[in-house]
Amino acid sequence: MMAAVMVDQSDLQTETWTDPVRGSVRWKTLISGDVTATDTLVCGIAIMSPGDTFALHSHPQPELYFGLEGEVDVQINGTAHRLKPGVALFIPGDAVHGVLAADQPVRWFYTFAANAFPHIAFTFA
Q1: Strands 54-58 and 88-91
Q2: How far apart are CA 81 and CA 43, in angstroms?
Q3: Looking at the whole model, is its pTM more than 0.90?
Q4: How far is CA 117 from the centre of its chain?
Q5: Rounded CA separation 77/60 (Å)
Q6: Looking at the predicted structure, is the pLDDT value of residue 1 above 80?
Q7: Is 23 exposed, middle or buried (0-12, 13-18, 19+ CB in 10 A)?
């Protein structure tokens, strides 16, 4: 049995993809078995500035977004879904999704049912 884990996002470094084809989205990993003494969940905060992108992609795990700040259209299998503060958006496993472009600052909480972020097999279109 594991102990409780508490993470303050203000103590974390912002991460981004090294391959610009994946987009310019940034994130802070809050919970992931490779950086915290946890398993079964990965979660963090995604961050986009105006003009940033998050290329269309898929992964086997379902994912949940919860809007924290700003509004943005999240494309899921070709349909736009408006994410805004207080809105939860479930993304089925293997669904092709992403953000074509943010037009304002936006942040959302995300979570996957996985042991660690590196275990998520992203496939970019």
Answers
A1: unpaired
A2: 21
A3: yes
A4: 10
A5: 14
A6: no
A7: buried
